[in-house]
Amino acid sequence: MTLERVCSIQDVPDGEVRRFDFGSVRIALAHIGGTFYAIGDRCTHLDVSLSEGEVHAKTCELECPKHGSCFSLETGIPNSLPATKAVPTYVVRIDDADVYVEID
User: Fold this and answer.
1) Which pLDDT score, from 0 to 100, does residue 47 have?
2) Residue 66 CA neighbour count, 13 Å, CB half
3) CATH number at residue 8
4) Residue 27 belongs to what domain range?
5) Could you tell me the pTM of the whole model?
């Protein structure tokens, strides 16, 4: 595993999500109430960028902007159709004011 610096904590405001690329790995990094979540950025239903979707803070989900599937930011499992397969999740670490993600 490689620990990659993603951004500064100020780069992703609370309640928002941003896309970051590490070679062929695309990550959607979401921020909810001081906690950061990293999941794969490709919807498993269609190859749509999840980082263009809406963060649902109360349910800790990220909604696909194309067909509305909601993915758990904690597990990557879709909680609504049409997606049925999970997206990968990544361990997030905060060091000072920087966000790091463990990538295989």
Assistant:
1) 86
2) 14
3) 2.102.10.10
4) 2-103
5) 0.95
